[in-house]
Amino acid sequence: MTFNQIIIRQLEIAQAVVLRNLNGVTQEESVIRPASGANDANWVVGHMIAVRNRVMPAAGEAPVWDEARIAPYVTTSTGDVTGRLPFDELRAALMASHERLTAAIARLDEASLAKKAPFSPGNNPEETVQSLLTSLVVHESYHAGQIGMLRREMGKAGAIAIPAGVATPLVGLQ
Question: What domains, with CATH codes, occur in the chain?
């Protein structure tokens, strides 16, 4: 597999986990903030889109949202749900951003991957598009798991069941 194929596959797995965990979540449930003070699902999904939005130009793709629309989702939530987008709109943008980003990644050649990234989440002056995409996978995976925990905070059953005796949580996500 190429680097692009590996990154796309990892993003596809994270996206499948997120979508499964969001199944049946309503607007009202999406803004339930856990007692621990963690971010709610509406903010986490919006934040994932906001980060994808920032990465897409590095992969040669236009963002799905403008800066005003992503503003409530860039920094950690204060718990104020004013200005939050409807959850159905977030789901649609999550799907569209995934499709556009993975298509853009598929088109990247080695020279494009080696270019300096337009930003670095870790303030690495040597950040390349390739290393930025690697960081994106970690970011997506982190929030996919977080949404699974938030689902349970909403009082919903876990969305990813692992059959007894199976050693991987990836069963059935293909």
Answer: 3-153 (1.20.120.450)
